[in-house]
Amino acid sequence: MARRFLSFAGLLAVSLAAALVLGEAALRGIGYAAPIWYHPDPVLGWTLRPGLTAWFRKEGRALVSVNAAGRRDQHVPIGKPAGVYRIAVLGDSYSEAFQVEREQAYWALLPGRLQACGFEPGKRFQVLNFGVSGYGTAQEYLVLVSRAILYQPDLVLLQFTNGNDVMNNSAALEPEKYRPFFVMEGGRLRFDDSFASAPSFRRSLSPPLVFLRHASDISRLLQLVRDLRNGPFVSAAYVPGSGVEQGLEPVVLAPPRDSKWSEAWSITEALIRMTAEHAVRNGARFLLFSVPYAIQVHPDPEVRAQLQRKLGVEHLLYPDQRLAEFGKRNGVPVLPLAPSMQRLAEERGAFFHGFENVGIGRGHWNAEGHRVAAELIAQHVCAEN
Q: Using an 8 Å Cβ cutoff, are 154 and 285 in contact?
């Protein structure tokens, strides 16, 4: 009886092993990959994991590679060669740009656009992308201070997302607490990195979870299980009257109506000023450019008007106008993209956000959105030269 049981257990083990091998082979055969792209970081909250390459299909479709320095970009040595003009890009998922191929991202298109307008003739351009999904201005400032400035950039581009950066910068409003914050006290910013000492965050750095992340790199089955647990990326077209889109509430499209949002804006503006000052202090030019909500640049003016009526505002450009006015008061160069992108979208009947696999007219920039953004940024930089 015992021998029969052992024989059955052995057969079961062999069958299970064969099923796992076949499952791995099948997932690899269809090109499935869903690696853990990020790991916890006690300074920044999280960073991209170096050395990963996989297809990203949750929104758009692109082959994404993360270099050895943990950036979605090509490898560039820290030392700057003679005759090179370097641009450091700070931003969130719009700059990380997993949704499009690297060559289609606005920062990859910038060198060609700048050369075409005669900017810095005789120089070779290197654009270094430090964008990481979910980052707010606080993390972007810390990236500049601790990493980007080491590359001796000649120009620092700070990408600002109208949809969520103000919330990201507020400890009172931001639901994701495992990140550094700056807190306003007595009219000055105080750095708060208390998240790093939280027991649950420290557990994320434990050997078992580090092992699990590395094991996931090898096993497509583990990736599939994690993917199914997290659920699919769900998106759809904008529905008038339903708000803007998940995670991007329309509150920033109107002046703040409570103290928490007023303080969030004050913190945001102080962080922008700090970032600009650090760039200039280290010999770089600085430019903030704002990324519009999809609804701000919807090609149908009536769709925009419906949200305007709901919010009781004359237009949807409040964050862009506020940033432009802040820039003038503080001597900080600001390029609001929404007004120009809105005009171009309406003229061309084009959507600059969205993809067929998740819905057009929401989400991140598609290839056309990146192309137009690169053109507008290059035009501004060349005009200000």
A: yes
Q: Does position 69 have pLDDT exceeding 90, yes or no? A: yes
When pLDDT is averaged across residues 252-260 and rounded to a whole number, the result is 92
| Domains in the chain: boundaries | 24-384
d(CA 79, CA 284): 16
Q: Which residues contact 123 (CB under 8 A, 6 or more apart)?
A: 83, 84, 85
3 state DSSP class of 359: strand
Segment holding 184, helix H or strand E: strand 181-185
Query: Do residues 99 and 62 touch, judged by C-beta distance below 8 A?
Result: yes
Distance CA 72, CA 148 (A): 14
pLDDT of residue 243: 46
Provide the pLDDT for residue 148: 98
Provide the pLDDT for residue 9: 58
Report yes or no: 128 and 86 within 8 Å, Cβ to Cβ. Answer: yes
Q: Nearest to residue 106, comparing CAs of 377, 352, 370?
A: 370
Cβ neighbors of 18 (< 8 A, separation 6 or more) are none
| CA-derived radius of gyration, the chain | 23
CA angle, 319 then 246 then 221, to 5°: 130
The pLDDT value given to residue 341: 98
Q: Considering the domain 24-384, what is its CATH architecture?
A: 3-Layer(aba) Sandwich (3.40)
What does DSSP say about strands 84-90 and 124-129: parallel, antiparallel, or unpaired?
A: parallel
> What is the Cα–Cα distance from 59 to 357, expressed in whole angstroms?
7
Sequence letter at residue 42: P
Lowest mean pLDDT among 165-174, 214-223, 292-301: 214-223
CA distances to 52, 54, 251 from 247, in Å: 27, 26, 11
